[in-house]
Amino acid sequence: EAAAALDRLVRALERRRYSLDEPDGNDETWREDLDLVEQALVAGVSPGARRRATWLPLSVTGVGRPAVRTQGPAGSDPVDAQRREDHLVG
User: Fold this and answer.
1) Alpha-carbon distance values, 30 to 15, 16, 21, 24, 37 (Å)
2) pLDDT of 3 higher than 80
3) Which long-range CB contacts under 8 A does 81-86 form with residues at least 24 apart?
4) What is the Cα–Cα distance from 34 to 42, expressed in whole angstroms?
5) C-alpha span between 64 and 54 (Å, rounded)
6) For 6, which of 33, 38, 66, 78 is 20 to 30 Å away at the CA?
7) What is the pTM of this model?
8) Which residues contact 22 (CB under 8 A, 6 or more apart)?
9) Long-range contacts for 2-9 (Cβ within 8 Å, ≥24 apart)?
């Protein structure tokens, strides 16, 4: 049911942004869908992760975000570069 609610929210957001037609639904139905999706997300994480997200969300701290991988020069391979570094370091 939460997956269907998320689909409805995404569809409404896309229609609101990119379509000349108004999206189906209204603020109340979208709020209900949003609450349902939020409940499903909260139910799917550990209590520790829930506390961290409440106390210090990543959107505020930026701490713990995965590093962004960029494409290196032609022929470079990040995995191969790590292997070479591991070999040199020991």
Assistant:
1) 13, 13, 17, 10, 10
2) yes
3) none
4) 12
5) 15
6) 66
7) 0.56
8) 15, 16
9) 2/36, 2/37, 2/39, 2/40, 5/32, 5/33, 5/34, 5/36, 5/37, 6/33, 6/37, 8/33, 9/33, 9/34, 9/37
Whole-number pLDDT of residue 58? 78
Q: Tokens 């049911």: give the residue.
A: 1
Q: Which residues contact 56 (CB under 8 A, 6 or more apart)?
A: 63
Q: For residue range 8-17, what is the model confidence (pLDDT) as tens digits?
A: 999 999 988 8
What are the CA-CA distances from residue 50 to residues 3, 33, 60 (Å)?
20, 20, 15
Single-letter residue type at 69: R
